[in-house]
Amino acid sequence: MPELPEMENYRIQLSKHILDLPITEVVVNREKSINKDTETFRSELTRRQVIFVERRGKYLLFHLDNGRRLMLHLMLGGLMYLGSREDRPDRTTQIEIGFGQDMVLYFIGLRLGHLHLHSAKEVEEILSHLGPEPLDRRMNETRFNTIFGKRRGSLKTALLNQDVIAGIGNCYADEIAFAAGLKPSAKLQYLNEEDLSRLYHAMREVLIFATEAGGYMEMPFMSGDTLTGGSNDLCRVYDREGETCPRCGDMIIKGEMNGRKVFYSPGCQHDR
């Protein structure tokens, strides 16, 4: 599932290419991916312009020139591609939004994901439960320690909880735990101030690095894009079962926690 680095990369790329262009065409191939009937969705978007693209956690918000918002959540397997009709990806698309004569934003893999049209107030209400952004300028070490220092339960469970902190998913939770030298199963109530400090800096390091590398998406965002997917091969423990740990040389283990797979190195990740 795309997480903060992947969605932030998309936000940056979209902001370079689609802002202030009139929407000239809307194709809906799967009505379950939207929250209105097809004709209403199409009529409300046609001739509108995207004036700003915002990311909130794992969501993207397309701000329209009439004050409304397109809210995207890609969920598992979702991705986007921006291109012409000629270089249309050989994939099933659920939604296509055309900008001008030969630029189309293709939404792919929205079997679980969605693209919904809302008012600004509705979006605010829907996303009101989300915790703070991990890389926001207001998220300093003191605030982080206050949030996590009061919690109980496992480290990974807290990192995945979007009500606690927004944007981190299965992959980067494991990578953050590894960078901090903590097991994903480490209990927060037993971590001291030094442990939490390592965790805070590990979170920033991992998310910034992955974002700058383009995230782990499986295909480029557009023709000539060499950034998107750049971190595919850079994970140090996630999906590396049986490989050698790059830090201690031990074998990386795959386990399960609350129904989710978890990867860690027992040689250099500890309970605290």
UniProtKB/TrEMBL annotation:
Family annotation (InterPro entries): FPG_cat (IPR012319), FPG_N (IPR035937), H2TH_FPG (IPR015886), Ribosomal_uS13-like_H2TH (IPR010979), Znf_DNA_glyclase/AP_lyase (IPR000214)
Organism: Paenibacillus anaericanus
Name listed for the protein in its UniProt record: Fpg/Nei family DNA glycosylase
Reactions performed catalytically: Hydrolysis of DNA containing ring-opened 7-methylguanine residues, releasing 2,6-diamino-4-hydroxy-5-(N-methyl)formamidopyrimidine
Domain Formamidopyrimidine-DNA glycosylase catalytic: 2-145
Keywords noted in UniProt: DNA damage, DNA repair, DNA-binding, Glycosidase, Hydrolase, Lyase, Metal-binding, Multifunctional enzyme, Zinc, Zinc-finger
GO molecular function: 8-oxo-7,8-dihydroguanine DNA N-glycosylase activity; damaged DNA binding; DNA-(apurinic or apyrimidinic site) endonuclease activity; lyase activity; zinc ion binding
Example of a GO biological process term: base-excision repair
Residue intervals of the FPG-type domain: 236-270
High-level lineage: Bacteria, Bacillati, Bacillota, Bacilli, Bacillales
Gene3D superfamilies assigned: 1.10.8.50, MutM-like, N-terminal (3.20.190.10)
